Amino acid sequence: MCRHIAYLGEPLAPRELLVHPPHGLYRQSWAPRTQRHGTVNVDGFGLGWYADGDEIPARYRRAGPVWADAAFADLARVIRTRALLAAVRSATEGCAAGESAAAPFTAGRWLFSHNGAVAGWPGKLDALAALLPPAELLELEARTDSALLWALALHRLRAGADLGEALAGTVADVVAHTTGRLNLLLTDGRSLAATTWGDTLHHRTLPGLGTVVASEPFDDAPGWTAVPDGSLLLAGPGGVTVRRLPGRD
Ligand code: GLN
Predict the structure, then answer these.
(1) Is residue 188 part of a domain?
(2) Does residue 249 sit within a domain?
């Protein structure tokens, strides 16, 4: 299971959320605290962020552990952003290695990440894959279950779904055909959506700054709220809402 985090709010340097907190994403790459599957997250990492005045995010990814990358430390220090999505990866057996398999995945103004695994990947997912036109399958960002989930979500976004509809619909698509752990995270830089389906997720308001949604709390300060399993979380300028997803007992 990988770990991911997203932020919306006032401009800040990514290192304030990812590196400086005692249990931030950086440390979660070797010492996650609530991860239910896997032990370390060393199979790649990525940071996507939005610059003021540009709705298309920038993305920086590498195939190895985040602590081994000097450029990441520089970027995390000098960037200022109102919205970011970052992830560290623990590759699932049967999924491709390399930078292209590290989240966030992106298209247009969207950034996407997945914590979990889809049962039956890759050989038993014909019916799930058949939901996508062949051209969209050919465009998969990587030969991984997460990239397939991103293609399914993107298909819905391009058809006009909002962030929450795209993620809830993707979970519904998967569970109609197989099972899996499906903690998804999606942002367009103005709002974000996340699902819980098999692993942990928390959110917290940082006073005077904004909203953080993360696989696990990055410190022991009060204010973190655990999101129940089987939920869809939406966050934006109006705050955070959480509702039940159908089909999760
Ligand atoms: N299955 C995905 C991958 O291999 C996500 C892995 C994870 O959550 N550990 O990239």
Answers:
(1) yes
(2) no
88 Cβ below 6 A of ligand 1:
no
| 183 CA closest ligand 1 atom index | 8
CB 48 within 8 A of CB 58: yes
**Which CATH number fits the domain that encloses residue 12?**
3.60.20.10
236 CA distance to ligand 1 centroid (A)?
26
pLDDT for the residue numbered 1: 58
Ligand 1 pocket test: which of 36, 45, 114, 216 has the largest number of ligand atoms within 8 Å of its C-beta?
Answer: 114
Domain count, the chain: 1
**Nearest ligand 1 atom, CA 117:** 1
Contact between 85 and 5 under an 8 Å Cβ cutoff? The reply is yes
pTM of the model: 0.97
Q: What SS3 state is found at 92?
A: coil
The closest alpha carbon to 50, from 110, 121, 130, belongs to 110
Distance separating alpha carbons of residues 133 and 155, to the nearest angstrom? 9
pLDDT along the chain (249 residues), means of 10: 93 98 94 83 96 98 95 96 97 94 98 97 95 97 98 98 98 97 98 97 97 97 97 96 93
| Residue pair 15/71 in contact by the 8 Å Cβ criterion | no
Question: In the structure encoding, which two tokens stand for residue 187, read together?
Answer: 């942002």
Structural domain for 112, as ranges: 2-244
> Is 67 contained in some domain?
yes
